[in-house]
Amino acid sequence: MILTNKIEMGVLVDAIGWELEMFSRMSGSPRHEMLRDLQERLQKAIDETDD
After folding, report:
1. Rounded Cα gap, residues 12 and 18, in angstroms
2. C-alpha–C-alpha distance, residues 29 and 35, integer Å
3. Where do the DSSP E strands lie in 1-51?
4. CB-based contact 16:39 (threshold 8 Å)
């Protein structure tokens, strides 16, 4: 799968944020850490994209 623009990546960042908030009690779990890392990498890609 190829994400083609900031809008698609932004939707994923938001969705990950919602899941992290809903399941905050699982903070520190492998899934929580993986989602946090993915969210940060997506946000960095958005910030570095020029479109």
Report:
1. 10
2. 10
3. none
4. yes
DSSP state of 26: G
- Sole residue written with tokens 């940060």: 40
Q: Whose CA is closest to 49, among 1, 18, 3?
A: 3
Residue with tokens 């850490």: 33
Rounded Cα distance, 18 and 22, in Å: 6
Residue 13 near residue 39 (C-beta atoms within 8 A)? yes
How do the pLDDT tens digits run along the chain, 51 residues long? 677 788 999 999 999 999 999 988 888 899 999 999 999 999 998 998 876
Q: Do 9 and 46 meet the contact criterion of CB atoms below 8 Å apart?
A: yes
